[in-house]
Amino acid sequence: MDFDFGADAEKLRNKLRELVDAHLPADFLGAFTHDEEDQEVVDEFIEILAAEGLLTLAWPEEYGGRGASVWEQTVVREEMWAHHEPRGAQYMGLNWVGPALMRFGTDEQKREFLPRIAQGEIVWCQGFSEPEAGSDLASLRTGARATDGGWLITGQKVWTSYATLADFCVLAARTASDGPKHRGITLFLIPMDREGVDVRPIESMLGPHHLNEVFLDDVWAGPEEVLGEVDDGWTVMREALVHERIGIARYARCDRLIALLRARLAEEQDELPVGLRNRISEVLVSTRIARLLSYRALAEMEDGRLDGPAVPAARIATTQNDQAVGEALVEALGPRWLGGGAAAPGALDGPEDVLVAAIEDHWRYSQAATVASGSLEVQKMLLARELWRSG
Amino acid sequence: MKLALEPQYAEFAATVERALAEAGALALAREAQEAPQATYQRIQALLADLGVEDVDPSEDAESMAAAAELCRRAGNNLLPYPLPEVMSSEVADLGVAVVDPDDPFVAHLPARTQWQLMDLGGTMYAITGSQRANGALSPLTWRVEVEPVGSVDVAVVARWLTLDAAYICGALERALELTVEHLDVRQQFGRSLKDFQSLKFRTVDMAVAVAGVRELCYYAAWSVGSRRASAVVDALTLRVAVLDAARSVLRSAHQAHGAIGFTDEHDLSLVTSHVQGRIRSPWAYQDSLQRLTDAIAACDFEGLFSPGLAATGADHD
After folding, report:
1. Chain A partners of B294 at a C-beta cutoff of 8 Å?
2. Which residues of A touch B212 (CB under 8 A)?
3. Is A7 at the interface with chain B, CB within 8 A?
4. For FRET with A124, which of A69, A116, B156, B286 sits at 20 to 30 Å CA-CA?
């Protein structure tokens, strides 16, 4: 039993922190803001990571990776999320699109896309959810009508994070309706600048870019753009969702924000109500639990077990922890956190204001944690299935 | 990063598990309620035969993890024997436990002829008197009187806290197993109870709580066994988590079982009563949480961004 990452992984962690310190502005809170300069910061940082071979560390070498271990890749995901994801929307390609292509893509698709993902050259969005198909994703209605040599796709997607920034979409559409609803879905790799694709952003409390509508009006797709088998997109989607569910190391940002707040409060911590001091201890405990359950899920996935209780258990713990930590941090700050930083771009100045803005951003973003990528209730349904399958 | 026990320890734990099942599993706990001394002797002989005493948790992280695993399996069978107290001790025939000196209780007191009690600060106490508690919720628990006689290495405190929590974790896993089984088998309104979403989801919450505690058991065992500076904090972290889980898991288990779960003949009532001593003594939830907060103030908490990890992240000897 050993919970040390090992010397190589710790060196990598320190290296990533040095890169963050050297290349990210002190007030950087992610790419998904109203300030376009933040996206420029991300673009530059991606180039630096790509040049160091740090974007797709754990991918096989033949696909642009270094064949690094899952634990080294974990260090990258932790440091990136903890520092407000300076890879921006790239993380989608890295977390689940790349793995899906490696597993289900044709040789041409792998050649076309994997090196470009490894170099940080293309941004992906996920075209799964629809207004009438959220938790019940298999009920999706966007249709791909067979036509001469391909399909014409018509329908509407919603959620679709980063659709305005994306070059390509992994788009789920119905190609057959005469069987169980999860059969008859096909995944297409569609360029976002193809005729008939129309993106409309949705403003939300999560901040800009996270939610969009994507309208599809007779969008062409050719057979070479199908990912996996026709009518069997569900197989690819299920696996993609598993990777997505634990791809974001949410606990790492929690760890960092708690540590920063505790350092900032220093002796003032003793002036907090005893209940609140103890609440901070409780979220340190639950954050460690979220982290360890995530490691357990990763170990299971490495052993080829994508089903099983570990992934939903990790997701349930991690997403609820995000919210619990958010609550504890804003209570410790007091009402000053409401001003935040996102509401007044450029108003940040000094380490304390950045921390307040970071905590405010975390609280808002964590509200969606138990809804995104399969809601808490869906995770519980999945775990229940496992409990009584093996029981 | 290694998240599994060494194979020889994993196999040994499975062997012990099988032996406990063959010896009667939870029936042993019932026997002990009537005839504690005879049962303690029988179990001691069984464990000696299996070679459990060859596992020395003070040796290294791997042996400590193995000891935690054995205590977890013991808890899963409600083994009526002070295994955490025996394995925490570095002296044969001596039982070791952490108590609240203002209200000290010891589980399975007659199973050892000699005892060394401790508080969180490492003060050592001798027993000057004892009386079996004998409540419905304290079947094999003894109230003692103590006097301070010296001090112990706090490493022993951290060891006991970890092994005690591992036992509780195993017991909570039993409550979960019973619940999964009951909800599957019990039918009302024409269907199995597990088909009712509120019960299904409540059981899932139990499973997540138990899974989280199990991971913390391994982490604390590694920390204590490796003699990390954070060992006491990590052991208290585990205690806080297992007590929080105990509160929700036992409540949900009883809710799921309905009236049958309260009856003496049902195993769930055995779980609840036999684990009460460990979850209330030496400190229940709030007192344990306060001690964790105080320990973190003194010694910090190791996360991905704690001061110790910010620099080299390696050296803890």
Report:
1. none
2. 286, 289, 292-293, 313, 317
3. yes
4. A69
Q: What is the pTM of this model?
A: 0.96
- Distance from C-alpha of A28 to C-alpha of B150, rounded to nearest angstrom: 55
**Active site residue: A72, A79, A244, A360, which one?**
A244
How distant, in Å, are the alpha carbons of A133, A162, A234 from that of A140? 5, 20, 11
Q: DSSP H helical segments within chain A, as ranges?
A: 7-23, 36-51, 70-82, 90-92, 98-104, 107-118, 233-247, 250-265, 274-302, 310-333, 351-366, 376-390
A4 and B CB contact within 8 Å: yes
Element (H, E) at B123: strand B123-132
A244 is catalytic: yes
CB contact under 8 A, B201 and A384: yes
Q: What is the pLDDT of residues B278-308, one digit of tens each?
A: 999 999 999 999 999 999 999 889 999 986 5
Look at the block and give the residue holding tokens 């997540």.
B208
Taking contacts as CB-CB distances below 8 angstroms, the residues of chain B near A10 are 312-314
Residue pLDDT, tens place only, A274-324: 999 999 999 999 999 999 999 999 999 999 888 899 999 999 999 999 999
Residue A218 has φ and ψ, to the nearest 5°, of: 50, 50
Interface predicted TM-score of the whole assembly (ipTM), two decimals: 0.96
CA–CA dist A103, A178 (Å, integer) = 27
Inter-chain touch B184–A391, beta carbons under 8 Å: yes
Residues of chain B with pLDDT under 50: 309-317
Contact B312 A14 (CB under 8 A): yes
| Rounded CA separation A376/B205 (Å) | 11
Euclidean distance between CA atoms B198 and A380, whole angstroms: 11
CB contact under 8 A, B304 and A252: yes
**Looking only at Cα atoms, what is the longest distance across chain B?**
64
Q: Render B187-213 in DSSP notation, one character per residue.
A: EETTEEGGGSHHHHHHHHHHHHHHHHH
Rg (CA), chain A: 21
Residue A387: closest CA among B190, B252, B247, B25: B252
Q: Which residues are bridge partners to A187 per DSSP?
A: A172, A227
Secondary structure class of A249 (helix, strand, coil): coil
Q: In this predicted model, what pLDDT tens digit does every residue of A235-258 receive, in sequence order? A: 999 999 988 888 899 999 999 999
Residue in chain B closest to A300 (alpha carbons) equals B3
Please spell the DSSP secondary structure of A99-168, one letter per residue: HHHHHH--HHHHHHHHHHHHTT---EEEE--BTTBSSSGGG---EEEEETTEEEEEEEEEE-TTTTT-SE
State the residue for tokens 């995000």: A322
Which residues from chain B sit within 8 angstroms of residue A255, using beta carbons?
303-305
Among A17, A289, A391, whose Cβ lies nearest the Cβ of B180?
A391
Terminal CA-to-CA distance of chain B, rounded, Å?
Answer: 18
